[in-house]
């Protein structure tokens, strides 16, 4: 579904129905708490309710409908949404990645789509401007991490406010019930929600869509009933002039900003709508929102406003009070189920965000479990799950009321929306090549709505709005420190890599004892010989008969097809028996899903040797190149500056790609000698494959580099705390590389070295 496919009308309608349960749960439960947070001190004037309703109507129209459903959703990365997906999309169109481990061959991937620009176009100028200075790339990364960390805060606050608001329905029918009992019920429901996560959304997802559809029908019907029962005069709120009259009457008072902060909650879940995009086509989400979600929400808010005008004393629990007594308890059950589903959607989005951050080198290594064989995006992260549960319980039990949690929730939502707005500017210029007038129109309309809400939420920092800021700052420090040290480790590897001339000078035996076996040396370098190799052979003067440098790297794409995942190259002459294998993954791919990674490496290596029989040459990507033979057409010899072999291990198909130019020259081989040459080549290949099999039978050892990063003695106190304590602590508690790569413990060898930054 993440690919651009053609769907039949019936299938599209079915997907639109299914999207209700996964995408719109959070947005659909907002009527539970919006008016309560907009008027925490009660309502005195009918015109205030009309003005607030008019603000809700046009906020829903401009932000979720116009901005997200019809604009931002189009900025998906092959079906993937969220701030990190936008960042990956930008990284493919401009060289702004802070870890420069990409190669020209990566651009040949079928999922690596990018645009080309004319030299003097506005897009080309913006691209050059972004690439010129490192501080611009760092500012963009900080902006992305800020949006990401705040979105994680949404994953904590959404379950808290949704479940607590739904549980509050118990107290409406039992006014004497203690608030602590309501909180206890909410905590029990939260524990149940997070305890079910390991089953995966595919196990219980088939229940979600019918429940949410019933929920939308319920709130829409109750809203229409209240409009009919309490008078249709409330419909005048659809005239935007009442927004102007509201601000003219109330001015810049604190009550005005309080109302705006509460109305902000009417669009909560909009960013989760974008983050959960990976499950459904854009058109399915557009159909569901336009024809079901949007009309039902308008009816629900309009009906509540009509009820509040007639019953101003019930503004604190207007949603449950407006429900007819005959269907109260069924409505309460459906509301609780909808709140749970809303929590599920945001929790799943948080897992996806963490997985993307992990792939981009911005989060410590954690265990990621795929819960579905059908949907790649459905994952479960145990460590994050229990952390979210603890924080959710702390927020729910700590505040005990919807008002303060609502203030915190609004702050988190508006910050993520602002980040998305700013990221859309380079997306529209570089990816879409939009005219600058359209870009200015988009950002002016978005900021015109979002900035007042942002200021309203900032004014509530002391009333609970500080919670998402603290959460965002904590996660930001973790992610930025981890990314900073990861970049420094990579720079150390780059600057200290061994030259090819040194390797060639050692001779075929590398000046060592070549013992039978295969040594897989893991490195972050996609080219060159890593420093860990020289460090290893300097301290232990023996190495395996076959050495393979393995680089596992993540690219700014959502997935790398299995048939394009591995690149194999030879380093040095054939009698050196040194190779490089690059395993490429997207931010949605899971490394451990390759059940037998060692077998896949060996199969790709064998295929490379057989493939190389058609070319009697060898070269490395950067340092080494020699003439190669080609038996095609008139039999020419080609000089390749870079030879890359892309092997498909799943079914044995092979594809070739070569970078830079190929200059043909006349081959010294004659046609009469071709059969003799082919026979000799086949024998050589058979011998090398047989040699490789013998080495594998002798034993395989995985050599992992363990580079310890420490701050220099003359570093500042902040840097020392960040590197020597925070980063070191995260390294100790996160998963080891050997576990991430699924390496058998009995064949693992760690080589340590210390790097001072």
From TrEMBL:
<keyword id="KW-0472">Membrane</keyword>
<feature type="transmembrane region" description="Helical">
    <location>
        <begin position="206"/>
        <end position="227"/>
    </location>
</feature>
<dbReference type="InterPro" id="IPR053951">
    <property type="entry name" value="K_trans_N"/>
</dbReference>
<feature type="transmembrane region" description="Helical">
    <location>
        <begin position="542"/>
        <end position="560"/>
    </location>
</feature>
<dbReference type="InterPro" id="IPR003855">
    <property type="entry name" value="K+_transporter"/>
</dbReference>
<keyword id="KW-0406">Ion transport</keyword>
<keyword id="KW-0813">Transport</keyword>
<feature type="domain" description="K+ potassium transporter C-terminal">
    <location>
        <begin position="516"/>
        <end position="757"/>
    </location>
</feature>
<feature type="transmembrane region" description="Helical">
    <location>
        <begin position="436"/>
        <end position="455"/>
    </location>
</feature>
<keyword id="KW-0630">Potassium</keyword>
<feature type="transmembrane region" description="Helical">
    <location>
        <begin position="181"/>
        <end position="199"/>
    </location>
</feature>
<feature type="transmembrane region" description="Helical">
    <location>
        <begin position="256"/>
        <end position="275"/>
    </location>
</feature>
<dbReference type="GO" id="GO:0016020">
    <property type="term" value="C:membrane"/>
</dbReference>
<dbReference type="Pfam" id="PF22776">
    <property type="entry name" value="K_trans_C"/>
</dbReference>
<feature type="transmembrane region" description="Helical">
    <location>
        <begin position="282"/>
        <end position="307"/>
    </location>
</feature>
<feature type="transmembrane region" description="Helical">
    <location>
        <begin position="138"/>
        <end position="161"/>
    </location>
</feature>
<feature type="transmembrane region" description="Helical">
    <location>
        <begin position="327"/>
        <end position="354"/>
    </location>
</feature>
<feature type="transmembrane region" description="Helical">
    <location>
        <begin position="499"/>
        <end position="522"/>
    </location>
</feature>
<feature type="transmembrane region" description="Helical">
    <location>
        <begin position="409"/>
        <end position="429"/>
    </location>
</feature>
<feature type="transmembrane region" description="Helical">
    <location>
        <begin position="375"/>
        <end position="397"/>
    </location>
</feature>
<comment type="function">
    <text>Potassium transporter.</text>
</comment>
<feature type="transmembrane region" description="Helical">
    <location>
        <begin position="467"/>
        <end position="487"/>
    </location>
</feature>
<dbReference type="Pfam" id="PF02705">
    <property type="entry name" value="K_trans"/>
</dbReference>
<comment type="similarity">
    <text>Belongs to the HAK/KUP transporter (TC 2.A.72.3) family.</text>
</comment>
<keyword id="KW-0633">Potassium transport</keyword>
<dbReference type="InterPro" id="IPR053952">
    <property type="entry name" value="K_trans_C"/>
</dbReference>
<keyword id="KW-1133">Transmembrane helix</keyword>
<feature type="domain" description="K+ potassium transporter integral membrane">
    <location>
        <begin position="15"/>
        <end position="503"/>
    </location>
</feature>
<dbReference type="GO" id="GO:0015079">
    <property type="term" value="F:potassium ion transmembrane transporter activity"/>
</dbReference>
<feature type="transmembrane region" description="Helical">
    <location>
        <begin position="49"/>
        <end position="70"/>
    </location>
</feature>
<keyword id="KW-0812">Transmembrane</keyword>
<protein>
    <recommendedName>
        <fullName>Potassium transporter</fullName>
    </recommendedName>
</protein>
């Amino acid at each position: 579904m993440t690919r651009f496919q053609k769907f039949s009308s019936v299938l599209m309608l079915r997907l639109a129905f299914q999207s209700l349960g996964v995408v719109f749960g959070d947005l659909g439960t907002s009527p539970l708490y919006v008016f309560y947070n907009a008027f925490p001190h009660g309502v005195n004037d009918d015109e205030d309710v009309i003005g607030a309703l008019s603000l809700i109507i046009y906020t829903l129209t401009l932000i979720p409908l116009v901005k997200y459903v019809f604009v931002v959703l189009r900025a998906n990365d092959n079906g993937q949404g969220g701030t990190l997906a936008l960042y990956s999309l930008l990284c493919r169109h401009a060289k702004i990645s802070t870890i420069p481990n990409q190669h020209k061959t990566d651009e040949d991937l079928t999922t690596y789509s990018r645009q080309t620009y004319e030299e003097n176009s506005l897009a080309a100028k913006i691209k050059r401007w972004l690439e010129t200075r490192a501080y611009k790339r760092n500012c963009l990364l900080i902006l992305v991490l800020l949006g990401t960390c705040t979105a994680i805060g949404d994953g904590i606050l959404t379950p808290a406010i949704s479940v607590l608001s739904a549980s509050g329905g118990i107290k409406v029918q039992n006014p004497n019930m203690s608030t602590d009992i309501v909180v206890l019920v909410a905590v029990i429901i939260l524990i149940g929600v997070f305890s079910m996560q390991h089953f995966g959304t595919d196990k219980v997802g088939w229940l979600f869509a019918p429940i949410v559809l019933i929920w939308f029908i319920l709130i829409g019907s109750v809203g229409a009933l209240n409009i009919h029962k309490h008078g249709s005069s409330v419909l005048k709120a659809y005239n935007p002039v009442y927004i102007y009259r509201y601000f003219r009457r109330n001015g810049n008072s604190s009550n005005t900003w309080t109302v705006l902060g509460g109305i902000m909650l009417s669009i909560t879940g909009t960013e989760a709508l974008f983050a959960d995009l990976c499950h459904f086509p854009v058109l399915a989400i557009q159909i569901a929102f336009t024809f079901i979600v949007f009309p039902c929400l308008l009816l629900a808010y309009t009906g509540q406003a009509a009820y509040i005008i007639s019953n101003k004393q019930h503004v604190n629990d207007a949603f449950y009070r407006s429900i007819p007594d005959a269907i109260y308890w069924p409505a309460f059950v459906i509301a609780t189920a909808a709140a749970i589903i809303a929590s599920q959607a945001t929790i799943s989005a948080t897992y996806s965000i963490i997985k993307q951050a992990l792939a981009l080198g911005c989060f410590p290594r954690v265990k990621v479990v795929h819960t579905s064989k059908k949907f790649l995006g459905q994952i479960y992260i145990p460590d994050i799950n229990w952390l979210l549960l603890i924080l959710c319980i702390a927020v729910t039990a700590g505040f005990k009321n919807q008002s303060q949690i609502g203030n915190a929730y609004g702050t988190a939502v508006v910050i993520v929306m602002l980040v998305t707005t700013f990221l859309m500017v380079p997306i529209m210029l570089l990816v879409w090549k939009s005219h600058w007038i359209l870009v200015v129109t988009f950002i002016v309309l978005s900021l015109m709505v979002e900035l007042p809400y942002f200021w309203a939420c900032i004014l509530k920092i002391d009333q609970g709005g500080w919670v998402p800021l603290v959460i965002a700052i904590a996660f930001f420090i973790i992610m930025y420190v981890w990314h900073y040290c990861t970049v420094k480790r990579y720079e150390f590897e780059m600057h200290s890599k061994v030259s090819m001339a040194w390797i060639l000078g050692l001779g075929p035996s590398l000046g060592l004892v070549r013992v039978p076996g295969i040594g897989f040396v893991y490195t972050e370098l996609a080219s060159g010989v890593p420093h860990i190799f020289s460090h290893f052979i300097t301290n232990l003067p023996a190495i395996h008969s076959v050495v393979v440098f393995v680089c596992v790297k993540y690219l700014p794409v959502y997935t790398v097809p299995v048939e394009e995942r591995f690149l194999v190259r030879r380093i040095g002459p054939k009698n050196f028996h040194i190779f490089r294998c690059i395993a490429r993954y997207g931010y949605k791919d899971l490394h451990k899903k390759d059940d037998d990674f060692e077998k896949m490496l060996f199969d790709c290596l064998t295929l490379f040797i057989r493939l190389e029989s058609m070319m009697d040459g060898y070269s490395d990507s950067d340092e080494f190149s020699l003439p190669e033979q080609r038996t095609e057409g008139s039999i020419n010899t080609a000089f390749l500056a870079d030879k890359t072999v892309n092997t498909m291990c799943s079914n044995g198909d092979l594809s070739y790609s070569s970078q830079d130019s190929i200059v043909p020259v006349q081959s010294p081989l004659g046609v009469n000698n071709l059969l003799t040459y082919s026979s000799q080549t086949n024998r050589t290949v058979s011998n090398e494959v047989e040699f490789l099999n013998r080495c594998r039978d002798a034993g395989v050892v995985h050599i992992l580099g363990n580079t310890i990063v420490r701050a220099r003695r003359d570093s500042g106190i902040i840097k020392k705390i960040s590197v020597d304590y925070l980063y070191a602590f995260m390294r100790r508690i996160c998963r080891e590389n050997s576990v991430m790569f699924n390496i058998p413990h009995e064949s693992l060898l760690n080589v340590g070295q210390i790097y001072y930054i």
